[in-house]
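Hi W.,

Here's what went into the run:
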Amino acid sequence: MKNLINKLETEKALSKEEFVQLIANFNEESSDYLFQRAAIVRQKVYGNDVYIRGLIEISSYCKRNCLYCGIRAGNKNAERYRLTKEEILACCQIGDELGFKTFVLQGGEDTYYTDELLVDIVHSIKEKYPENAVTLSLGEKSYESYKMLREAGADRYLLRHETANESHYSQLHPASMSSEERKRSLRDLKRLGYQFGTGFMVGTPFQTPELLAEDMLFIHEMQPQMVGIGPFIPHHETPFADQQAGSVPLTLFMLGLLRLMLPHALLPSTTALGTAETDGRERGILAGANVIMPNLSPLDVRKKYMIYDNKIATGLEAAESLAGLKKSMEKIGYRIVETRGDFRVMNYEL
Ligand code: 5AD
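Here's what came out:
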């Protein structure tokens, strides 16, 4: 396994068969070696720095019906809320005071937020906080909508591809959604000059090492600046309620592979990882991640943005607990920095 890990580090690519071999046979030994190499690579690019993003969950309304997601339209018991422009700006104000230089507006696909309203919101944030980056994570939109938002000042966009394989995609989504459309959206975002992120869940129903290898190849082809991955965690009011949760060790292994394939990528240690295991977030950093996205949403709505069961919302992942998060990172040899943390291609030589 070491030879394949070394090959990935030097060539930043592997064939599908090679990825399958690594993923299907991953174990503690190969993980330890991978994490060592990933830490070295990440050190060369970003040092010990860990970037923070203030996550504002603007709406739990969603018109989609993704089979895995707790805020799917079909979940009649989901608690719904949406934030007004003023409420979003109030979150930004708190975040700015806490030292956040990136605001991530994430939400279900909620038609209440028209292009005009979103443009106004992005404009207002950028006007008030010109030094700060704005990341959007609001699902699939037309090229024209993405363009308007980019022109309004949005810097980055997150849209996970979920799975690169068409038939697997259709096992996880209703017939009204397609892998093709998701990929079209991602290509549009790239073309418009967003720093864009994609990603997938580890351990979704029907996933195999071959499918994970296809995710790696798709990510290689797209060369995103950010990749978000986390374990699948079942939500009790979805068709996948009785499915098994994804494996944390495999999620960490995939993070390590991503660090070697995309040395400069911004890789969050996700809330799902922190939910699946108490020390999940720290382990994500040790496996190769370099971003943490604490929750800046108003306290009274946090429990309503339940995309999977038991999603953590008020521990160290909460923006108010930044001091504690800083300490937990220092303990493992990393430091939280208060800069925008843009993608960069400097500082890396083999
Ligand atoms: N478990 C883990 N992650 C989930 N997501 C949605 N539902 C779940 C779940 N049950 C992820 C998806 C989505 C992101 C916002 O959250 O990958 O893109």
